[in-house]
Structures are given as structure tokens and as C-alpha cells.
Amino acid sequence: MNEAAWALNNVAKGTSEQKHVVIMNGAIPLFVQLLASASASVKEQALMALGNFAADSPSFRDLILDHGALHLLLSQLNKNSTRSVLRAATRTLSNLCRGLSDAQFAQVEGALPFIQRLLYLPNEEVLRDACRALCFLYDPHGPHFKVETLIEAGASHPSLAVSAPALITVANILSDDDIQTQFLIDRGVLRSLHHVLNSNHGSINHASIKAIACQAISNITVENTIQIQ
After folding, report:
1. pLDDT tens across 170-217, in order?
2. How far is CA 20 from CA 45, 88, 176, in A?
3. Residue with more model confidence, 129 or 176
4. Would you say 187 and 147 are in contact if contact means Cβ atoms under 8 Å apart?
5. 3-state DSSP helix/strand/coil percent for the chain, to nearest 5?
6. 162 and 154 in contact (C-beta within 8 Å)?
7. Which segments of 35-174 does DSSP mark as H helices, in order?
8. In this structure, what is the dihedral angle of CA atoms 104, 106, 107, 113, given to the nearest 10 degrees?
9. DSSP string of 178-198, one letter each residue
């Protein structure tokens, strides 16, 4: 079974035409079923294949969601999973969250608590893809995120691949209404952004990171005079 999953996963890395042929021959429900396998290796291959499909096309992503992959994928995000399975699951989750419509958001909204927990893990690849997923999923009218966790674990991370999507998410939240902006101010977002702007270490010193931090501060100063002060 592992060899068959590995072979199909290699096809999933191919061209869009090759992926289309595999999908039209029933690959997606097969890979979704393999997420319940007792073999970590088989699950990893299935996750990687589904992630490659989802990254290639919104229609492929929708098929994966329609076949109920999200529930089985989220069940892999636990302390008992191997590092390779955890990395593959987080990457695939990020791809499933990209470019969703409002209607599709309801299909993946349940992933938010899982993503938030991933922000505490000391794994750069997992943290990078968790920040990306959160950036894709940010709902201006949804529940408040623990922004201090996002900034501490993500925006201040030494890897640019982690810090950029984390800060973009913060900037997006600050571009919404005064209530959410004040919520983040009360949670110390200005202190954290000040740290980003004044740090000369790691990825925080990168010009693009400082530019995103400046944009986040700019979003605060759009209208509310109290918040500007």
C-alpha cells in the first residue's frame, strides 16, 4: 500500500494534466481513505498528494473538501503524529485554506482552533504553514485570535517564511473595524510591532518585514483619533 501511495504521490507532483487524469480516475477519495491508515508513512504520502492537488487548482481543492478530507486531516494534528506527518498535514491544511469564498469558509472554519495550537510548536515548517493558513483564513467578522501568540511565535520568528505571513495576518486584523483594532491594542500589539521595527536580528531585520509592520501601524491610524494617540 505504501508503494502504491508513493507512486501516486509522484504523479500528484506532475503537471496539471497528469493530476487531472489521476483525479478523474478516483484518486482523491482513495487518498482521503488512506488518511485513516495505521501506517504513518502511508498517511504522509496521502497528505502530500492531497496537498499537491489542492495547491494546483481551486476545483481540486473543492473536491478534496467535498470528500471529507478536512476531518481526517485535523485528526493528524496531535502530539502522537510523527514530525513528517505533522509537517505534511499542516502544509496540506494551508493549501486547503487558500482562496476560499465566504461559502467555502464554513467548510474549514473548524480548523481555526487547530491552527492556533500549531503556533506553539517549535517546528519552523509547521509554524510557517500554520501562519499561512491563518493568513488565508482570517475572518474579519469571526472570533478574536490570540494575537500575542501569533506575534510571539510567528512575527518574531527568525525565519522570513514564518514571520511574513504572521505579520500579514496581524495587519489584516488591524485593517478591520475599531473594535478589533482596540482589542489588539489592549493585548499589546503596539509593543510587539515596536519590537519588530527596532530589532536588528534574524528575519525581523528584513526590509519586507519592517514594511509589513509599518503597514500594520498605518492601519491603526486611519480614522480613530483615540487610537492614533
Report:
1. 787 777 667 777 877 777 778 778 877 777 655 555 777 788 888 888
2. 18, 21, 39
3. 129
4. yes
5. 75, 0, 25
6. yes
7. 40-56, 58-66, 69-74, 83-97, 102-108, 112-118, 124-137, 147-150, 160-174
8. 130
9. HHHHHHHHHTTHHHHHHHHHH
